[in-house]
Amino acid sequence: MEPKKLRNSAELYLKGFLIGCAETVPGVSGATIAMITGVYSSLIDSLSAIGSLRPEKTDFKFLTVLGAGTVTALLIFLNMMNFLLNSYTVSLYGFFFTVIFFSGLILVSKIDLKNRKKKLAVVLGLIVSITVSGLSSTALDHSLPVIFFSGFISITALVFPGISGSLILIMLGQYSFMVETVNNALNTMFNSLRTFDIKGFLSVPVELPVFLSGAVLGLGFSVYFVKNMFSYDRDLTISFLVSLVLGSSVAPLIRISENSSATGFAVFATSEFLLPAILGSIITLLLESKTNLISVDT
């Protein structure tokens, strides 16, 4: 492989890895990271082509490399993020707050907002994103219809910036249950491989395929909706989606206020918030100045 192509593949893999990391953190959207890193439109176009049964218009190499990065991150960080969320909640959300906030500002600054419709789209996107970020949890059981519905709804985080799949699962009371289900399934599969136990390897909990079935169906509906919006007015849709990114920076702040022992604005003056927040802002601004990684993918 040529050095340039190898570098491009490595960069795409890294972007997929970042999307996967985001999907494990409640309050952070994978689509937000896809928008920030400039792969969003390509992702929607390729997924839409698959749904429309047009393989000739599908960039399979793009989906494979990006998907590999995403899956790698999910396998590595699913358990780790659960630990970090329980042990370093304020610090983790402080970091993601500044990453999302400054990335959102950078994206908005790259949009031509002279058009009145675009300004309205940005305002509407901010309202929607902030409203979704403030939704509270709803306790549901772990029946198969609920699991299917959870997969259907949570996958929208891969399509709509500002909507967190992990946060949706928490709101539906399914996050810890699904993390435990996935981890148990992976442990069983790895143990079965070591002992060459084919039956054990295939004994996947029924909740997992049910969840994935809902996710596949939800992904199809979400991509179809966004693709039609792109066909109607691509620039207007991009303006709306970018504003979802900026508005979603509210979600980490809400999670911090819910999980901190400090009251009011005092939590934002603590070192456990400030240090990671400063680190997140420095990394984001350096990435933009040195690599122009944060871009509006039109």
What would you note in describing this structure?
With 298 residues, the chain is mainly α. The protein has one domain (3-291). Helix content is 74%, strand content 0%. It has 13 helices and no strands. It has helices at 3-23, 30-36, 40-51, 60-87, 89-109, 116-133, 144-154, 165-171, 175-194, 198-202, 207-247, 250-259, 271-291. α5 runs parallel beside α13. The radius of gyration is 19 Å and the shape is globular. The chain starts with a helix and ends in a 7-residue tail after the last helix.
Largest sheet: none
Strand content: under 5%
**Count of helix runs:** 13
Q: Which descriptor suits the 3D outline?
A: globular
Q: What Rg, in angstroms, do the CA atoms define?
A: 19 Å
DSSP, total strands? 0
Question: What order do the helices and strands follow?
Answer: HHHHHHHHHHHHH
The overall average pLDDT, rounded, is 82
- Based on secondary structure, the structural category is mainly alpha
Low-pLDDT segments, ≥5 res? none
Question: Short summary of the structure?
Answer:
Helix content is 74%, strand content 0%.
Q: How does the SSE layout of this entry go?
A:
Elements: H1 3-23, H2 30-36, H3 40-51, H4 60-87, H5 89-109, H6 116-133, H7 144-154, H8 165-171, H9 175-194, H10 198-202, H11 207-247, H12 250-259, H13 271-291
Helix pairs in contact: 1-2, 1-4, 3-11, 4-5, 5-11, 5-12, 5-13, 6-11, 6-12, 7-8, 7-11
What characteristics describe this protein?
298 residues, mainly alpha, 13 helices, 74% helix
